[in-house]
Structure formats: C-alpha cells, structure tokens
Design brief:
This protein is α/β, with parallel strands linked by helices. It has one domain: Metallo-beta-lactamase, Chain A, CATH 3.60.15.10. It has six helices and 14 strands. The protein has a six-stranded mixed sheet, with helices on one face. Strands 7-8-9-10-13-14 form a six-stranded mixed sheet. Strands 11-12 form a two-stranded antiparallel sheet. β13 and β14 form a beta hairpin. The chain is globular, with a radius of gyration of 16 Å. The chain starts with a strand and ends in a 6-residue tail after the last helix.
Length: 212
C-alpha cells in the first residue's frame, strides 16, 4: 500500500472543501463531502486517475452533502455517514436547496456511522468520531497512521463551527473538540470544511475559542 494522497476541491458558492483521498499505489480512494459542482469534482478525479470506491459525508448540510446522491449514482458507489442523528437535516436538504435556487437529489446513506466506527478509504483506515454541536450527527474522520483528519465544520483555523442553529449546541461542540480532537496530539493535521487547514497544536495555542 502506498502513501495517502489528498486533493482539496473547493465547491459551491460556499467554497466548501470537498476532499479526494486516495492511495498513491493502488489509486483507489474516496470522496468526502461532495457539496456540489460535480463537473469540477469529476474533473479532479479523472485528472488524478483515481478509482473512487465510496463517498463519505461529515454532516447533513447542503454545502457538504448536496451533490452526494448524484455523484454516488454516477459512480455506482455507496454513501457512508454521517451519524443517524443528522437524518432530519438530510431529509430537509432538497427543500433547502430549492430556496437557494438549486436542485439536488434526495438520498439516504447506505451506511450510518457511530462513534468509533472504522472506515476504509483507499485501503487506509480512518476512525469515525462523533463530534456533535454544529449538527447533532457530525462525524470527523481520522487516519492515525498519517496523523491526518477531515473535520468538516467542527474546527477551523482560529475558529470553530457555528452553533447558532435551532439544533446547535455550543457546549457539545467545545466538549467534542476538547475530549476527542485535542487529545490526539499537536502533530495531527486537519482539513476543515472551509478555508485553510491547520494542526491540533496550532489551534491549542492560538484558537481563541479553545483558550481557558
């Protein structure tokens, strides 16, 4: 098995970081959070020469999961995640998309995830961590061998995910970050849902939301 490879694909007007992740030897991999702009995603997949085996969703927001159904259908691959507590948000996505002038396909994940589940992306094992607060069923994907994570909208460079939704929970979000992500170690790097990534160490030192 080769090295883990990652390509970030900013998609939709929300500039959401869709991620193509694959093994550099087998050229097999997966897509995390295909929010939309499928021609751009497919172009990157083709240019990289990757065979996509599955699609993963961190949480049930339109900008992260809006293109999941269409992409899964076109590639004939399953959709995995998030936690089932995001099911109501996924159901609402079609109507939400229409309000933004968008048309998307409805879906139910082929597999819901729970805290501690293991998933394979290109043969590399990722631990799925339930990190609620931004949404009730938000999942984070962690590859311990590479000390690398895809955290969705849980943690950002010098910021954290929004919790000002009816279902948001600020205390739960801070609790998930401090109990599940920070203990992983300062050298764990992450891709977040929007903007530039960071490391656990950098956020521990400078993120104003994580200072006591």
């Amino acid at each position: 098995m080769g090295q883990l490879q990652v390509k970030i694909i900013p998609v939709t007007p929300f500039q959401q970081n869709c991620a193509l992740i694959w093994d550099g030897e087998t050229m097999k991999g997966g897509i995390i959070d295909p929010g939309g702009d499928l021609p751009s995603i497919n172009a990157v997949i083709t240019a990289a020469g990757v065979t996509v085996e599955n699609i993963f969703v961190t949480h049930g927001h339109l900008d992260h999961a809006g293109g999941a159904a269409e992409l899964a259908r076109s590639l004939s691959v399953p959709i995995i995640g998030p936690d089932k507590r995001d099911a109501p948000l996924i159901v609402e996505m079609v109507d939400q998309a229409e309000r933004f002038g968008m048309k998307i396909e409805a879906f139910t994940p082929d597999q819901w995830l729970a805290d501690g589940n293991s998933v394979s992306i290109g043969g590399h094992q990722f631990e799925a961590l339930h990190c609620p607060g931004h949404t009730p069923g938000h999942m984070v994907f962690v590859n311990h061998d590479a000390k690398f994570m895809v955290v969705g909208d849980v943690l950002f460079r010098n910021s954290i995910g929004r919790t000002d939704f009816a279902y948001g929970d600020h205390a739960a979000l801070i609790g998930a970050i401090t109990s599940k992500l920070l203990p992983l170690g300062d050298d764990y790097a992450f891709i977040c849902g929007h903007g530039m990534g960071s490391t656990i160490g950098a956020e521990r030192r400078s993120n104003p939301w994580l200072q006591n």
